[in-house]
Structure formats: structure tokens, C-alpha cells
């Protein structure tokens, strides 16, 4: 049995996956931590803090913590969790995180950036992606359970009878982040100008010309994304990954338009940005359930164009949201125009038996 809890991480990602096998053994995987407020805000516990306290009360652990990349809306809650002196860090058993220093050790043959995690005082804004990445590096070094290797396309990890196949990032995405890390501040979420396309109908978006422009954010290109297989279930957790990197990884695994990967659930990349989901990727996928994570208050996301592509590929799709934004994105006419469904999860977990 798989239970997936899509925590409310504001404009960010925070996902808790619990796996229970036939012996009732439970393993937990935490993916990202949303913004800082996902852990706590004005001394009030957020979804992330409530979740980790609940695990501790049940004597459970976080068997794998995946920090997909350095953007604030993925890393902020994790940093706040580690800054909490009352948080029992021993609950975490293994961490995946591609830090700047780790990337430098793997891709910097000239040693140009070997001290990059020390020489960052030039950044006055404590919320820059790079500075947060450095702070997290410091916490993880003290934690003692950091799986200190580059997590990239092709890696396969097993947690009991759960198989995780990493689909992103590729070497190119990591090298670009490596080059940008200290030379300039990464522009984390510049892939959307903040304007929405909600005034357009789903029918218009499906029928009108669709010109795809891929995400150019360097941090997003370094995002960890993976396929999770447990018993007979398959989940695709895409972080903020580039669609063409995922497409290439799926093709390398033997999937094609004629042999699609059958999924039980797909977490849409980059809060359903139209620059992170294309038809070429969707054509490789047979899936009915798609989840979007964002409160829609920043960056103009989600893009309705993304949902039009999903519906075009599978007219009977179920679109799920971790915030109550269905009626903001879709008109009543949209919701009555086809066989697709769009629903608010209302903090409920998704259970796959």
C-alpha cells in the first residue's frame, strides 16, 4: 500500500510518501519542504512540521529525504526544519542533495570553484537559492546521513521492495548549475511572467496552435526527478525537471508511443508550468491521475495550457490540486466541457492499494 500526502507548501513542493508492505513494515520518503512557512509561520506549525512530528510520535523515520534542487520553494521548509533546535534530526536516515561543493568535486576539473561554499559573502540577500544551498550543505555535513554522491539520471536505489529510478538531472543540467553557482545569482522562477491564461477555455487551448518553449531556469535543470515502483504501483515525481530530459530517460528505459509507461500517479513538473510539460513527453505516458502543487499566488502558475495538453493526451484525466484553486483555473464551462475531472485534495492523502 502507498499513501501519498501532498502537503501545502505555499507556492512550493512538499510530498510525503509512506510505503507499507505485506509485513506492515512502513518506509517514508519525504520530497522537498516547500517554503519556510511550510514548516512554521509565526510560531504556528505548518504541514511539514505536523507531518514530521506525527512520524516521530509513531516511532517512524524518514528513510529517504530527497531535496530536488536549491530553489526556495523546495528548500526553504527543509532549512527551517533543521534550524528548529527541538527537531530530532536522527529521524532522517538518508538524504539526497546535489550541493554546490558536491557538483564542483564532480565537474570542476580545474578546481576553479573548490571553495565556492565558503566565498559567498557577496550575496546580501539571505534568501538567494545559492546561499540556501550552502546553508543546507552545512546542516547535512553535521547530520551524518548524507548520501554524498551526485544523484543523477540512471541511478537506481532500492528501499526494501521499493525501487527508485532517477530520471533527472542529466550531466548537462548539473554542469550548467556548476557554472552559474558562484558567477551570478540563479534566477529561480523566471520561467513565467506572472500572467495567467485562465481567461482562455480548455477547448480553445486544445484546438489552438501550441508552440512549446522549454524551461530555461538553471536550478530547474538540476532538479532531481524519479520513477518510484512499489509492488505493482508506479509513481512519477518530477520536481521541477525539464520535460525533454524526462522524455529521454523514459525512452532509454524502453518506453515509446507504442509502449507507454503505465503510471498510477504523476506529480506534474514545476507547479504545472507550460514550459515543463510537453506533448512529446505525455505521449510516452499512460496515466489517469495528475497532481499540481501550488497555491497559485506567485509566478502565474499553474498554466492552464499544461492541463490542456494533459487532457488532449488523455481526455479522461483526473487533475488534483493541493490548494483550492480549481475554480480559479477552470470556468464552469470548462468543467462541463469534457470527461476530465478537476478536484481539490483538501489535505487528504492519496492511497494506492
Structure description:
There is one protein chain. The protein is α/β, with parallel strands linked by helices and 353 residues long. The termini are close together. It has an eight-stranded mixed sheet with strand order 8-9-10-11-13-15-16-17. It has a six-stranded mixed sheet with strand order 7-6-3-2-1-18, with no helix packed on it. It has a two-stranded antiparallel sheet with strand order 4-5. The radius of gyration is 19 Å and the shape is globular. It is built from twelve helices and 18 strands. It has a single domain, classed as Metallo-beta-lactamase, Chain A, CATH 3.60.15.10. β15 (289-292), α10 and β16 (318-321) form a beta-alpha-beta unit. InterPro entries: Competence_DNA_uptake, Metallo-B-lactamas, RibonucZ/Hydroxyglut_hydro. This is ComEC/Rec2 family competence protein. Pfam families: Lactamase_B.
